[in-house]
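Can you make up a polypeptide sequence alongside its tokenized fold?
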Amino acid sequence: MENKRIDILIGTKNRASEVGFLLQSLRTQSFQNFDVFILDDASDVPLTNFYFIGNIINRLKCEGHKIFFQRNNFSNGVSRMRNQMAKWACEVSDNDLILRVDDDCIVEPDYLQRLVNGIDKGYSVMSGVTPPIMQEPWKRDTKFVKPLISKCTLTDTGVIVGDDCGYGYLEDEIIPSEHFRSSCLYLKSIHTEDNIWYAEHITKHGFREEEFFSYQIIIAGHKIGVDTNAICWHQLTPSGGERASDEGVDIKLNQELLDKFAMELKDKHGDFFKKYYDEVVLK
């Protein structure tokens, strides 16, 4: 895919400072062929009220990036917000790639280039690793975790979601994964051609929405990869600002909905994880 250009989608609520750090980290990327979509999901204080945000946006514009901005009057929640941004980008932009990034991330300068390299190698979705920014990096040896990184397993009642992407790794490689981490780069055609979108029936908290998206991508024949040296630091918790009135209840409900969804897919497609694991992960 020559002359790649990325639509970077940032959905946010009540995280102006964090968005500022994220935008600054985008300005330092070695890969600069991108535009930015910002959706303020009904922040208590509008994002545009912050002078420093306006300054950074103006710098990005001067550096050749298109900036698109919207604000919701009422919060849609994480998954609806992400669908809103994706549909918006599909309507107004001809770029071929989407980076959906959490608003509290700081991406290392080579993050975009590493993910683009993964797309060049045949992956339809690429993500990196997301250690907490206050945690000292702990380098793991991929030979011990390669069969487990972001692995999912179907059981008789639902799905067990494995997740080993919150670390850095000794090796510099791309590992096939059964679900992506936050701040992922993917082909826009997943929306426009495959008609795959984020789940909108889960709670505003958004827990497990990435898995709903990933499973459909796998069934559609796409590959998901994790670059073990693409670092995306989390300043806070993910999901574009917490929306949950009762986080524990929301997480439990979303897991139950994911289990039901996984069983429905299994009834229709068989054990799609085993097929993916045998044909992609172990290949």
